[in-house]
Design goal:
The chain is mainly beta. It has one domain: Alpha-Beta Plaits (2-Layer Sandwich). It contains 1 helix and 4 strands, in the order βββαβ. A hairpin with a 5-residue loop joins β2 and β3. The longest helix has 5 residues. The chain starts with 33 loop residues before the first strand and ends with a strand.
């Protein structure tokens, strides 16, 4: 945690993402020009896409089955599609 009384040597190195879903409180979907599309027939529900999502925009159930995306939060960065080993997420133009 960063506080006002910290010196420069106490601050974390810039560019670190300290926790996943760091923008989950914001609706960043209006920034998007491409959106991820979940291809259920290719998905193995490995959930490798969940952790790198900076917006916590991937919807899954309590059994860790990928259900889709919260497009209000998804800004279309495409990280989920890049990390999917089964090519079960495609980026489509809006």
């Amino acid at each position: 945690m960063i506080t006002d009384n910290m010196g420069a040597k106490d601050l974390p190195i810039g560019g670190n993402i300290l926790e996943d879903g760091n923008s989950e409180l914001f609706n960043t979907g209006e920034w998007r020009n491409k959106k991820p599309v979940h291809l259920d027939d290719k998905c193995k529900h490995c959930m490798l896409c969940v952790m790198p999502c900076p917006d916590n925009a991937i919807i899954h159930d309590e059994y860790d089955k990928m259900l889709g995306f919260d497009y209000n939060k998804c800004k279309g960065c495409g990280v989920c599609a890049k990390v999917c080993p089964f090519k079960a997420i495609e980026m489509k133009d809006e």
